[in-house]
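INTERNAL TRANSFER SHEET
From: sequence group
To: structure group
Subject: RRM domain-containing protein

Please process the attached sequence and return the structure record in the designated field. Keep the field labels unchanged so the import script can parse them.
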Amino acid sequence: RRRESDGGDRPPHKRRRRDIIQTDERLVLHRIPAGITQQHISDMFVAHTQIRPSEVPEVEYSTSVSAKGEKKKRVIQGKVTVSFHSRKHADLAFETLGGDVYPDAVGTPQKRIHLKGGG
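Return from structure group:
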């Protein structure tokens, strides 16, 4: 039903934008702002879904350059795959988080959420 698609063999700068994508008993979180920790992510799920993830690995951050006109800006964003105890827990966490569900280019459901004040 829901499968991860990261753009295939495209280089990272050519992949499509995603924020939260569901894959089996896991949720993939992309475009995580710098400074967000494993604990912030775990706390967000507990506070907003009442579901505790079974595993939240360390967020993997990378730096890219965003150019608007003549100005260039370094952007630090992270990615992490959060695991849950079952597919049902992951489904419920995905559905319970606020935000509209919309498909990516290949039809994978995703949501964009905004964190304020650490969760």
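Handover comment: Residues 1-18 have pLDDT under 50 and may be disordered. Residues 20 and 29 are 5 Å apart (CA to CA).
Transfer complete.
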